[in-house]
Write a structure and sequence with these properties.
Chain A has 9 helices and 12 strands. Chain A is of the alpha/beta class. The chains are: A alpha/beta, B alpha+beta.
Chain lengths: 235, 371
């Protein structure tokens, strides 16, 4: 018998939890549904799900509290779904350790893709098994060679500067996941770096001019407006 | 502080409260009235040099004008009433015989004085009230705009909702008689309508982000290309068949803007091109830069804009035509574009190119032009 991944859905709206549950079951996951934050916390510690789909607007507590309390003891992947659209809310959830953030309304394919990515990331120690095995990350015509510190487009060196390479390498490590501006800046320039993200933006614009066919419709690195960047999933 | 209860009948008390509400004090108003008072005094002193007949009526006139100006320039009517009293007293004290003396002895003077005093106070009160009426009218206008917007929105929402409710009803009630294709079609329709509703809600959210026109939008330096990217990505998910070509500048361009709002603007323009161009197959987005401004140009190869609508496209009025597809009226979308661009101190306009429509959004590149 195939052992399925267990997904805990924390959502108080029945119509939404129903449809998420149906989609997930149809795609080979086991699902459990809870409606409140307290209940969610007990279920998480007793059932150890493989992933949590967490709504922020719960009747008994703010979903962010659930997120914080789980992150105290566990790394298990959490995908936040919320009707809160302000970029501030997204950044907050991601900073408190959410693996991804989906704004309601979302499509089923989007949800499945994010869940797959989140589960995969937590499972592999180096966040990306491909990199661990070959020292390389490949998606489409883009290859990041972590051993040689190079980014290749169709086999050609894209001639990135050191900082540009660092940004691409970081995004490649977490491919499929959105990294906030602050996170990227901290990883690159240390915790004391100014949180002004202008330098990062300009770097990104230059990177895109080197690796994308048309920087206006990028294929590899996508912008989450007001939040951060996301690298396309690896092949 | 506890409210002072005046031992008057309740009806009067309310009126007193209304009166005292307008007796507001502020340092600025004090300075304004003081300077007006000084000006009037100096003017009268100068005029007295040329005054041979010892006719003092001009003095009263000047102080009356002073009262009028005070009422116009200060809030409430505390200062204008004070000005009336002091003005008239100084007319008596300084400028009428005997000079530098309060005197009611002059024949006929008490009456003149009282009448002048009364007129001054009345002027003060009436002027302040006129100002209040203006304020009320402006508030009423704002409310009217809101009401219009709400009407437009509920109209735009009702049509797709009818579609969704209808389709799902048929699916529930006639489950067994429908063919698979019919069922699929109904579901597709319902989904399409729901998508449309999402678009409307997103536009409404944008409106709340702009605020009521007082709160400034939150501008940050954003890469123009990232905003374009966001809009195109969203658009291509909904309309995968329509090709979007993006032309950027060789150098990255940072523009002060609210990135989510501008994404919404471009997305609205793209959807507008797709829906209203009818035969649109390709949309071009071109980024241009000229001195201290930049332009986002959205050009389609559709049918263009009906010439009678080019001028009135952005005023957000729902056209009350009975024929045609009302839902596809981009009333909200384009007026949101207009509002957002205005909040950025930019301009937006539309024109026909001969082979389609072209919308241009022009934004300032410097923050300094906010004033």
């Amino acid at each position: 018998m195939k052992i399925k991944d267990k997904v805990l859905i924390v959502e108080d709206e029945q119509s939404i939890s129903n449809f998420i549950s149906m989609v997930l079951t149809a795609n080979g996951y086991d699902t459990m549904i809870v409606r409140g934050g307290e209940e969610a916390l007990t279920m998480i510690s007793s059932h150890c799900p493989d992933l949590i789909v967490l709504d922020l607007g719960l009747p008994d507590m703010d979903g962010i509290e659930v997120l914080k309390s789980v992150r105290k003891w566990s790394n298990l992947p959490i995908v936040v779904v919320s009707a809160r659209t302000h970029e501030r809310d997204k950044v907050e959830a991601l900073d408190y350790g959410a693996d991804d953030y989906l704004v309601k309304p979302f499509g089923t394919s989007e949800l499945l893709a994010r869940i797959r990515t989140a589960i995969r990331h937590t499972r592999t120690a180096l966040s990306n098994s491909q990199i661990a095995q070959s020292g390389k990350f490949t998606t489409g015509d883009l290859t990041i060679d972590y051993d040689k510190h190079q980014v290749l487009i169709c086999g050609e060196n894209a001639k990135l500067t050191v900082n540009e390479y660092k940004i691409v390498a970081l995004l490649g490590k977490y491919s499929g996941k959105v990294l906030t501006y602050d996170f990227i800046i901290r990883e690159l320039w240390g915790p004391k770096a100014k949180t002004d993200n202008q330098i990062l933006r300009v770097n990104m614009a230059n990177i895109r001019r080197k690796i994308e066919k048309n920087p206006g419709t990028p294929e590899y690195i996508f912008t989450e407006v007001g939040v951060g960047y996301r690298m396309r999933e690896g092949d | 502080m506890k409210e002072i209860i005046i031992p008057w009948p309740a009806k009067w008390r309310k009126k007193t409260k209304l009166l005292t509400k307008h007796l507001t004090y502020s340092g600025k108003d004090f300075i304004i009235s003081m300077s007006l008072y000084l000006l009037a005094t100096i003017l009268c002193l100068i005029l007295r040099r040329f005054d041979t007949e010892n006719d003092t009526s001009y003095v009263a006139m000047i102080f009356l004008l002073d009262v009028f100006l005070t009422a116009l320039l200060t809030d409430g009517y505390l200062f204008s009433v004070l000005m009336a009293i002091f003005g008239m007293l100084s007319v008596d004290y300084v400028f009428t015989e005997p000079y530098w003396n309060i005197s009611f002895t002059l024949a006929g003077f008490p009456l003149t004085f009282l009448v002048m005093m009364f007129i001054a106070i009345a002027t003060a009160v009436i002027t302040s009230r006129g100002k209040r009426v203006e304020e009320l009218t402006r508030e009423a206008n704002e409310e009217k705009i809101h009401a219009n917007l709400l009407r437009a929105v509920s109209h735009d929402i009702r049509t797709p909702l009818t579609g969704i409710v209808g389709a799902t009803n048929v699916l529930m009630e006639q489950e067994n008689t429908l063919t698979t294709e019919q069922r699929h079609e109904l579901l597709c329709n319902a989904n399409e309508e729901a998508q449309w509703l999402i678009g409307i809600v997103e536009n409404l959210l944008s409106v709340t982000r702009i605020g009521a026109g007082e709160t400034k939008i939150n501008k940050t330096s954003e890469l123009a290309e990232e905003v374009i990217e966001g809009a195109v990505a969203k658009f291509s998910r909904r309309y995968p068949d329509i090709q979007v070509e993006v032309t950027l500048l060789p150098e990255p361009l940072l523009v002060p803007m609210d990135p989510l709002l501008m994404t919404q603007v471009l997305n609205n323009l793209l959807e507008n091109a797709a829906i209203h161009g009818k035969s649109t197959s390709c949309i071009k987005i071109i980024l241009e830069k000229a001195e201290n401004r930049c332009c986002f140009v959205v050009e389609d190869d559709g049918e263009g804009i009906p010439s009678e609508e080019v001028a009135t496209l952005f005023n957000g009025r729902i056209k009350h035509t009975s024929q045609g597809d009302m839902k596809r009226n981009m009333g909200i979308g384009l007026s949101v574009c207009h509002a957002v661009v205005q909040a950025h101190n930019g301009r937006i306009w539309a024109e026909n190119t001969g082979s389609g429509a072209r919308f241009t959004v022009e934004l300032p590149l410097q923050e300094g032009e906010n004033a």
